[in-house]
């Protein structure tokens, strides 16, 4: 056990979002509502893609995995945060904190890679439409997703060791609402320079690296779209990419603010940024991809009509009997 071998600390205290008692109950209601919407919205996306043949394409294959990751990602953070808002005991065991950190890094890394894969998918669909089926085959989709899960697992294991493999011998109060890398590193008694370098390298690979893929994909898309003769074709191509661009901007914008800055510059706004990418973004993704996507809206309407006809048929059959 790491806490026995390396550390005098066997538990941590999460200071949470706010110390104001009157604000805790309204915040609990707000974040509980966000969590429920997150679960319902993302489960709805997964079911809709599965039951709609028109959505059985690589883009929506990646979207179902994104929805699944958002469910897991949010569940790692939200239940514990909600419990702490109503409880005076905000302690978390060393092992519990370590596992929360590991799973958070795992799912966050996969989300970065999935957003990059979706950008590459749009690049091939718009820039090389005749080769799309060959390049983005079912086998390639599974290989890309499997490789992202594997790389995320290795990243999570190494980053967790860098943070929790050190010595905790002083204060055990984490100034955050979950076990995130920056507030936990501040509690280490041992030298953190090597750990910070390794963690920063992995963050750079996962966040900056995937952003480079997204940027290059959209530069290529932009060049292709500008060469299109038809204004309608250009508008359709831009509309196809709008949902993904919005999801990328929301997720990576808050992640860049939180992680790619010097440790000395971290402020109280970090909690706001963390709430945004860890709690709010998983809720927004289903709305972004459904309300701004004609294919999803059409599939939702067709699914609703089938359910309505099935319900009408059951009523007619039951009335005859």
UniProtKB/TrEMBL annotation:
Q: Where is the G-protein coupled receptors family 1 profile domain?
A: 41-289
Q: Which cellular compartments is it found in?
A: Cell membrane; Membrane
* Record bears the keyword Iron: no
Q: Which GO terms describe its cellular component?
A: plasma membrane
* Taxonomy, superkingdom: Eukaryota
Q: Which residues cross the membrane?
A: 32-52, 59-78, 98-120, 141-168, 197-225, 237-260, 272-291
Instruction: Give the way it sits in the membrane.
Output: Multi-pass membrane protein
GO molecular function terms attached to this record: G protein-coupled receptor activity; olfactory receptor activity
Q: Which UniProt keywords apply?
A: Cell membrane, G-protein coupled receptor, Glycoprotein, Membrane, Olfaction, Receptor, Sensory transduction, Transducer, Transmembrane, Transmembrane helix
Q: Which SUPFAM superfamilies match?
A: Family A G protein-coupled receptor-like
Which function does this protein serve? Odorant receptor.
Protein family according to the UniProt entry:
Belongs to the G-protein coupled receptor 1 family.
Quote the protein name from its UniProt record.
Answer: Olfactory receptor
Which species does the entry assign this protein to?
A: Amazona collaria (yellow-billed parrot)
């Amino acid at each position: 056990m790491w806490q026995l071998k390396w550390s005098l600390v066997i538990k941590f205290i999460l200071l949470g979002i706010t110390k104001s008692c009157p604000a805790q109950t309204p915040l609990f209601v707000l974040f509980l509502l966000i969590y429920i919407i997150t679960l319902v919205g993302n489960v709805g996306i997964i079911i809709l893609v599965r039951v709609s043949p028109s959505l059985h394409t690589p883009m929506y294959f990646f979207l179902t995995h994104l929805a699944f990751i958002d469910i897991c990602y949010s569940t790692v953070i939200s239940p514990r945060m909600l419990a702490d808002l109503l409880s005076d005991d905000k302690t978390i065991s060393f092992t519990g904190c370590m596992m929360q950190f590991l799973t958070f890094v795992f799912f966050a890394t996969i989300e970065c890679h999935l957003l990059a894969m979706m950008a590459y998918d749009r690049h091939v669909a718009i820039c090389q439409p005749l080769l799309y089926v060959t390049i983005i085959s079912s086998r390639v989709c599974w290989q890309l997703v499997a490789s992202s899960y594997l790389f995320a697992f290795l990243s999570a294991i190494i980053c967790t060791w860098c943070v929790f493999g050190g010595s905790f011998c002083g204060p055990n109060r984490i100034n955050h609402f979950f076990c995130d890398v920056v507030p936990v590193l501040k509690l280490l008694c041992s030298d953190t320079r090597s750990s910070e370098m390794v963690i920063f390298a992995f963050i750079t690979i996962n966040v900056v690296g995937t952003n480079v893929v997204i940027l290059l994909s959209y530069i290529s898309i932009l060049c292709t779209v500008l060469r299109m003769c038809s204004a309608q074709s250009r508008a359709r191509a831009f509309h196809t990419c709008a949902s993904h661009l919005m999801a990328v901007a929301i997720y990576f914008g808050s992640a860049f603010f939180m992680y790619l800055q010097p440790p000395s510059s971290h402020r109280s706004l970090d909690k706001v940024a963390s709430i945004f990418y860890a709690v709010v973004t998983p809720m927004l993704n289903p709305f972004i991809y459904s309300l701004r996507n004609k294919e999803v809206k059409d599939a939702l309407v067709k699914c609703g009509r089938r359910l309505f006809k099935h319900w009408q048929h059951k009523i007619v059959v039951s009335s005859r009997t």
